[in-house]
Design the sequence.
């Protein structure tokens, strides 16, 4: 497997790097550097075939997420969105559905590992977009799952944290083998 460490000047952090477990802080101001960071994140996502990426995964402990909305729409067989990427700044959960859904998940920061994870089927969030606009978004399907997954990153949580202790141990062994094999 290709080394996940460098794409341009941004590092993609993988488990068990401690930066993935740190909480994030709010973005105070939308700057050109932040907008360039979103562009770099989009390149990383495309390069590694991901559909979402959060600040901590690139070592930035800020509340930012980028989601490949176009790919998700194709997967969910929905109309294509007006923008390819959702650039989400300072997201806050408004509500989650009581109805749950179990689907397989993976993560660029936990390479080659996939498990069935149960999450709320629908989610409603508010956030600031890259233009500084306040946005409210209601999502279901893969988009809701992706948002929930990336929101976890902002709290220092990975999808493997939902697994039983035995499965977590297996993941740890698999990840060590991947690193040794490089």
Sequence:
């Amino acid at each position: 497997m290709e080394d996940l460490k460098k794409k341009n000047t941004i590092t993609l952090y993988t488990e068990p790097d401690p930066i993935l477990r740190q909480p994030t802080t709010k973005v105070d101001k939308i700057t050109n550097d932040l907008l360039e960071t979103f562009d770099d994140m989009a390149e990383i996502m495309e390069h590694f075939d991901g559909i979402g990426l959060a600040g901590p995964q690139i070592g930035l402990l800020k509340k930012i997420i980028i989601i490949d909305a176009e790919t998700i729409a194709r997967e969910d067989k929905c109309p294509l969105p007006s923008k390819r990427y959702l650039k989400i700044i300072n997201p806050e959960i408004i509500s989650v559905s009581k109805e749950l859904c179990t689907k397989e998940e993976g993560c660029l920061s936990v390479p080659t590992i996939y498990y069935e994870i149960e999450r709320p089927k629908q989610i409603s969030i508010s956030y600031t977009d890259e233009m500084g606009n306040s946005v409210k978004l209601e999502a279901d399907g893969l988009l809701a799952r992706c948002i929930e997954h990336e929101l976890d990153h902002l709290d220092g949580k990975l999808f493997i944290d939902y697994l039983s202790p035995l499965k977590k141990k297996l993941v740890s062994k698999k990840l060590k083998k991947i690193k040794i094999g490089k």
